[in-house]
Amino acid sequence: MTTGRWRRLDDAAAAPILDLTDVDEVTTTLLAPPAEFFGVRRRVVDQFTLLSANRAQLARSVNWGPLDGLLTSVVPPTGRIDTTGHLPPEVSVLLPISTLPKRALVGFNLSGPGDTAAHLMPYSTSVAIQGNVVALLAAGIGLPPSAPVRRVIDAISRFRPGKFSGNYPRLAPSKGRRPLSLGTLHTYLGQAAELWVPEAALRQWSVLVKPAQEVLMTALDEPFDALCSAGTLLLATGELWRDPDGPDNPTADEVEGHLAAFVSWVAELRAAGPDAEPVLSTVAEYGRRWEALAAVRLDPYQPSLIKMTEERRAILCRRPPPPSRTTPGWWWRRPARALALTNPVALVDLDPGGPGSYHVSIGTDDSSIEISHPAVLDLYDREIERIYVEDVQHNREVYAYYTTDVRRPSRARLSVGLSLSPDVSRVTVALLVLMALAVGLAALPVRLGPDAVAVITIPSSFAATILLTRERSSLAAWVLGPAKTALLALLVALAVLSGLRAVGWHRPADAVAPTPISPTASPTP
């Protein structure tokens, strides 16, 4: 750790700035705050907007309280600076913004207090501070990680799934629910990390790390993901050569020694009981997510607001997850879900960001789409019975709730149903009914005059108009997709039946002319 230092601006009359961006104890304390600093991060506000069928925008703002108490207690006084006295009017610090999934950032913007400039720290800085967080938590229970263990912890944080799925898409599992084969790991470690080891050694390593993997996944309590470096520890071995304090080209024996030390450390944590659960869950979470840190300048004696916007992949499903038996009204909601041909929903990930208050809202960018039936699910897509909501606002265009209860779930998903506005859905349903009647009449074995044929084919022109009309957004097109598919099928069926009638198919019996009988013909004996 380097101590804080004065850094003056180019203007000699400018106020001095306390630069604490190198003092990682401040950021570590904010990520794992003791009880006296729980109220420093006061409020987190998440606003989700569904832009299209593929994109959702997250606008996140984090309200921080005054940091003077934390800075004076964490940053040690030195000969050049005394933090126990009056702090400068402006300090430069690293503040955690959000725990993000390990994926490339799209449309990411960051702003500091008063819309001043804020800079996202490099991923390597986040990896180092995440390792400090784990070391701080482990030291608190008397089990600090050794140097080899710390290298494995940093390797777990450093690995990103895109290194695998982006460079070797054919080897990546489709849904990530099945473990990677030894042949796949052998190819990845050899080509990506130049760690060529025999498959027999990989099999031995796999047996070695299996108990630690099971402990970490149990502590995380999330669905299995094959590209999670905490659940597949051999993926992290390909990152050991990038450790600045480790060897540039570690040998197979050195890698095995690091893995053995890490497995022993995890076993000690497991034996420590409930006190070690925060350590295990933090290590496991850093195998899937990373801490986004912002370098900002702020007044240590005033509250501050950090804003972030990001585009994410929209998670849409044709049917919502089935309600659990503890959900009110589950006995009629399950049959209704089974009978419904489509009941589309949108899912967004919730990250309350600490013990402060949490506000979340979700809406769409298309006025023809409405939201309904909100529900909070766990990461296994099971509806959570109690989410400790204290206030809620719900209309056809937005759903929002507010909570300050510390018992709320730390990780969850918000599910909202998507439907068309009444002015669009009524017309679509009416045309579906008319087209179904037209197809039914065309298929009946009855004589139809030209006027009747013209009448039953009138709805087809309106159906064709709807099919050719471009929706305002791809989200509306996705929601309307099943209805348009049904209209297209009915339109094709009506065209086929009309053609068959024109060639004489399905002619009624009374329309067939009887065979004339000659009066001179003798009866057949």
From TrEMBL:
It comes from the Bacteria. The chain crosses the membrane at residues 427-446, 452-468, 475-497. Keywords: Membrane, Transmembrane, Transmembrane helix. This is Uncharacterized protein.
